[in-house]
Amino acid sequence: MIETELKFGAHNYKPLPVVLTRGQGVYVWDENNTRYIDMMSAYSAVSHGHCHPRLVKTLEEQSKKLAVISRAFYSDQLGAFLKKACELTKQDKALPMNSGAEAVETALKAARKWAYTIKKIPADQAEIIVCIGNFHGRTISIVGMSSEKQYREGFGPFPPGFKLIPYGDSDALEKAITKNTAAFLVEPIQGEAGIILPPKDYLKKCETICKKNNVLLICDEIQTGLGRTGKFLACEHENVTPDGLILGKALGGGLLPVSLFLARKEVMDVFTPGDHGSTFGGNPLASAVGLAALNILFEENLISNSEKLGNYFLEKLKLFSFPQIKAVRGKGLFIGIEIDPKFYSAREVCLRLLKLGVLTKETHQTVVRLAPPLVITKEQIDDVLEKLEQVFKEGHASVLLAGIQ
Ligand SMILES: *Cc1c(COP(=O)(O)O)cnc(C)c1O
To answer: According to the model, what pLDDT value does residue 405 have?
Structure first.
């Protein structure tokens, strides 16, 4: 199965050597029926757990009724989904897309058109400020604003109009703003960069600076949103309500690609019929699953579980004392362990964990990401803690041995 995938598939990923065949809750099984605990949850797309029964039921029922109609017609599902999303995020309007990258593109288009029609920036002069270390997806314009060499190399030329500033530095934002700045696009916690938490009050300061300068604050909460960091939105940790908000990943309940760009009325109203669209965006099936995914977060206490068990997990990890661990950081069930590359790569840690039945994935060679489904229990976290300890103990012993030899 691995051979076939490698033979017929593009090699744009480097998966761990395990072939998964089914999943339930926090667990997945391989073709030999070996069970693994999933500490990755598809980069937070599976926050509800694998094949959540209520979501599967919603998917099944709606798929038999009506699934895809395009946006050429109204449906009995889309309105309720968007209404709920707007209420929960304190935004006025939402535009449905499918993947995260598409919703980010939507945000960029909205910001630019808002800049020309409302802020009256001269044609084609709008600038959007983004942060070093950002991850917003993989389209040409999005990798064009990335600071990551590999994401860009070989894919130019890129659209102009983006400016990079250091992450976590609100003074840098203030300095970078010009009369042509349309928006500041930022992740409340940088995920792909290695679970990077900005200084306290960073987002609040950015909000104030953006307001003062009539610049839109757009938060990419595709990974940090929907309970991942212990609040519904990571913005809520600092009481920030951005002008634009991007959601994805867990919005599809781990079953479908569902994303949203949400914004204040003034921003969203720049779109008129024909300006933007998506054949599958907001289809009845995606809407039904998206609405259920939002409701389940609250009805099944997934957000408070993320907060409580995230704190517990982080506290326990901070007690680990191994020379291989450079740092442990995170918020809610969004945790990174930074490995000292002197000892081994984060991938090696992931391979050792795989052997012990724990699935996770390195980010940026040095960080092991721990972002399990939010349905995880304390007992399951204790089990993972034990296995992590085992890996680091083994690692420690072999390192010592190597030192002696
Ligand atoms: C995953 C991610 C994206 C891109 O989402 P896709 O669905 O893979 O296109 C954008 N921004 C952030 C913060 C993400 O984590």
So the answer is: 41
